[in-house]
Specification:
The C terminus is likely disordered. An eight-stranded mixed sheet has the order 1-2-6-3-7-4-8-5, with helices on one face. By secondary structure, it is of the alpha/beta class.
């Protein structure tokens, strides 16, 4: 009977630990390192310190990100051809910042316009098995805490 009580009392603790971590399995998520911290796409919205949204309307964007054809023309390039998704460079630490991609924009979060042409705050090149252009755009905007160069240059 005591074993049953111990088992019954540990199940909620285990479930809480899984939900606190935000995932059921350990798998790599798109991540970049900047200085001594890393920026990672959150597995759950409540993990994120910053939320970003995307728009198809350039007039609604607060940040513009252009997809370019070569890594030489990019401010941020992701090129991988590895099969292992694990990366020690992006280990989760207390300094890790999590970014979530929201379905709808709010007035307090960056709204990203992602396109292949026009003026841009950031230019990205993505050739990856684990990153999409949206992931890369969210990470570069998140790494700069939602600020973009065009807005700061206008001040």
């Amino acid at each position: 009977m005591l074993r049953l009580k111990i088992l019954a009392s540990t199940i909620p603790v285990l479930l809480a630990a899984v939900f606190a971590r935000g995932e059921f399995t350990s798998g790599a998520h798109p991540c970049i390192t900047t200085g001594e911290t890393s920026v990672q796409i959150a597995t759950a919205p409540w993990q994120a310190q910053l939320h970003v949204a995307f728009t198809d309307d350039p007039s609604r964007a607060t940040v513009r990100v252009q997809i370019v054809d070569s890594a030489e023309n990019a401010d941020f390039a992701v090129v991988d051809d590895i099969d292992s998704a694990e990366s020690e460079a992006c280990a989760i630490t207390a300094a890790t910042r999590f970014i979530a991609i929201s379905a709808a924009a709010s007035s307090t979060e960056p709204v990203i316009y992602l396109s292949g042409e026009g003026d841009a705050d950031y230019r990205i090149f993505v050739q990856s098995k684990s990153f999409t252009p949206r992931d890369a755009a969210a990470l570069i905007v998140g790494a700069h805490a939602g600020h973009h160069r065009m807005a700061t240059a206008a001040l």
